[in-house]
Every structure is written in C-alpha cells, then in structure tokens.
Design a protein that fits this description.
It is built from eleven helices and 20 strands. It has helices spanning 16-21, 49-62, 73-77, 81-91, 101-107, 125-128, 141-149, 197-212, 223-226, 352-359, 363-368, and strands spanning 43-47, 67-68, 70-71, 96-98, 114-116, 134-138, 154-160, 168-169, 181-186, 217-219, 236-237, 260-272, 277-278, 284-285, 290-295, 312-315, 318-321, 331-334, 345-348, 375-378. Strands 1, 12, 15, 16, 17, 18, 19 and 20 form an eight-stranded mixed β-sheet that branches.
C-alpha cells in the first residue's frame, strides 16, 4: 500500500493517492488555489509557496547589505508571475525583473517596482508611460536616445562587461549616459555558475563603470553570482533560477529548497510480459514480467524525451522508473512495486539538479518548459 511519508525527492509533498482514495478534494482550497472547473486537468504542478519564500530569504541573507530582487520573467519561470510576485512582495521583495513590456503589464498592478530587461522599442513607448513603477533597462545608445526624446524619467541601464549580449559597452564614453535619471545600473555575469576568470574580470569592469556613471544603485549578481562573495553584491542582487528551486552552483546545495512538483494522473495499469517492448521504437524490452502505469504527461507538457528510460516517478515513497520513450502526451512507468490504480496521481521526480542530469536539459529549460496544460496549485 502507499504511504503518506514522502521520499527524499518529494519530502514536502502530501500523498495525493491516499487523499483521493479517502474522498478528499484533489485540489486544496485557500489563497492561490484555482477555482474548481467543470473538468479538472489531468496534470498539476504542486507549488510550494513556503519553499519559494525560504529561497528568497536565504538569497537575501547571502546578499549581505545589498537588497535582493527577483527575476520573474517567462511568467515567473513557468510558475505564474502574479502568484510569485504576490508571495515575494509579502516577504519583503521590492524589485522585480521581466523580459518585455507584455510581462510587465501582467504584474504591474501587484508589484512595487518592475524593470523591463529588454529595454524600450518605439512601439513600447505608449505603454511604458502608463505605469510609473515600471522602468526600462536601456541597452543601446538608440534606446537611450529614444527614452530621452520621449521625455526621459527614471530608467535602468544595462552595461555589457564582457558577455557580448545586451548592453552598452563598459568602455563607452561617459557622454553616452549623460542626461539620464538612472535608478539602477546593471550588468550580467556570464560564468557565475563556475570558477572562471571572467567573473573577476567582469566585476572589475563593472566597478570601474560604477565609479564614473552616476546611478542610485548598482547591480551585478544573479543567482550564482550571489554565491561568489560580497564583492559581487553591490547594491542589488537579481536571483532567478535559485528562487524556483534551481541549484546554480555547488555552494547553493543544501541552501535552496525544491519548489515545483509535477504530478500526473494514471490513465491505465497494465501487465507487460517478459520479452515484450514498451513505447515507440521498442527501445525498452522487459527482462521479466512487470506492471506498468501509463500517465497523462509527455513532451508536449515539457517532460522531454531526454527522460526516456532515465526519468523517475514516485508513488508515495516508491520510485517507479520510466520505461521506453516519452511520448507527446503519455509516459510509461514501472509500478511493479507500488499499489497504483487508474485515476491515481503520481509525482514526477523534478528535483532540478537531478532532473537535469537525467534529461540532459538545463534546469532553466526544465522550469520554463512546463506547459499550460498543468493546473498550477499553490500550497
């Protein structure tokens, strides 16, 4: 029988199967719970709000005297930006970062301050003036001129200190920045998740720019950058991945808690005999008779083909290995050791470090690739 004691991979989960069989609601009520629909989705993300807040508070402590913001781009890394902003705002976060103006508009009414990392295009200007708490992060001299010519006002500016992605070059003449009301001068570390000489080089370059370009605050460190030490903190840190349970570098292990727990419903339990194959292209052949469960999840939901024969699903505290290839909408797992029946909910092993190793995908991809067919259920 299933037990309500969780595995190491699902230590904060409630055993959904036991609740279901006891006749309890599968979707909890309370703040953040979605309104009940005529038909519930066969997929859900259990999102641990306490772990999210814990991660931000741990990163804020690691940031020392610097304030700690939050990157909530890509719809809060796939969790839902409004709910992420609401929880982190209540915890004390005051600075949020998104990619574009559509993302800013989605949270403008629930956040104290938003910075738009991709700057301001001509077609963004009308919307950019609607929300005084939303600022562009200007990335090019053309964007700077556009902002000045449209009336100026508080803005952030990105300086490229070596990544050769977005930003004004770190050695650009000071005249480029004249006439701007810079709230935060920012740069971005390219190699913070590893021991690389470029980290120190970028820090030195950014400090040199900060010494000659006036701004109210200066910001360099992302999630991994926070763990590089106090010299990288400046006035404001901007974690992203680590907020949502990602472990960006070895120093973060044991500090960051898992936030996202995908769960999928069993469509069928079936018996496979020795010598038979499971899934497309017969990549898995059973060495002995075994019991299989077919789950309502696949690569269309973000559970990629890299998990074929490498992924794990949990029935309570029992590990059930993935068998054969992941399909678009379906997943086959070995439940020979588990008491699982049609309609049960099983938990996908989505501890991000481990899932990344199993799938060959980055932790960022694993989070942001989770599809819209999941109900997102906060607790």
């Amino acid at each position: 029988m299933l037990h309500c004691s969780a595995s190491a991979a699902a230590a904060t989960l409630v055993c959904a199967n036991a609740s279901k069989r006891a006749g309890l609601p599968s979707t909890p009520a309370g703040p953040g719970a979605r309104p009940r629909r005529v038909t519930d989705a066969p997929l859900r993300l259990r999102l641990d709000g306490a772990a999210l807040v814990h991660n931000w508070q741990a990163l804020a402590r690691r940031s020392g005297p610097a304030a700690c913001g939050a990157a909530v781009k890509a719809d809060g890394y796939g969790l839902g930006s409004r709910e992420v902003v609401r929880r982190l705002s209540e915890a004390g976060c005051r600075d949020f970062f998104v990619a574009n103006w559509a993302e800013a508009e989605a949270i403008a009414d629930v956040t104290p301050a938003v910075s738009v990392l991709h700057g301001v295009r001509e077609e963004d200007l009308a919307g950019a003036r609607r929300w005084p708490q939303v600022r562009p992060v200007l990335n090019t001299e053309r964007q700077i001129a556009r902002w000045r010519d449209s009336g100026g006002g508080p803005c952030d500016v990105m300086v490229d200190t070596g990544m050769n992605r977005l930003g004004v070059r770190w050695d650009a003449p000071g005249a480029v920045f004249e006439g701007l009301e810079i709230e935060t001068l920012v740069s971005h570390l390219a190699c913070a998740d590893e021991d690389h000489p470029m980290n120190a080089e970028q820090r030195v370059r950014f400090a040199a720019v900060a010494a000659r370009v006036p701004a109210r605050r200066y910001s360099l460190a992302n999630s991994a950058g926070i763990f590089l030490g106090a010299d990288y903190g400046f006035d404001l840190t901007r974690p992203g991945l680590a907020l949502y349970g990602g472990v960006p570098c070895p120093a973060a292990e044991g500090v960051i808690r898992q936030v996202v727990y995908p769960e999928a419903q069993v469509l069928q339990r079936r018996r496979m005999r020795a010598g038979e194959a499971a899934g497309y292209n017969a990549t898995y052949v059973a060495p002995a008779d075994q019991e299989l469960a077919v789950l309502n999840i696949g690569y269309a939901d973000g559970y990629g083909r890299g998990f074929s024969d490498t992924g794990t699903v949990f029935a309570g505290d029992i590990a059930c290995p993935v068998r054969g290839r992941v399909s678009m909408d379906l997943l086959i797992v070995d439940v020979s050791a588990a008491d699982v029946v049609e309609g049960d909910w099983l938990t996908i092993d989505y501890a991000l470090e481990r899932a990344a190793a199993a799938s060959g995908r980055s932790q960022y991809e694993l989070l942001t690739g989770l599809g819209r067919r999941f109900d997102r259920v906060w607790r």
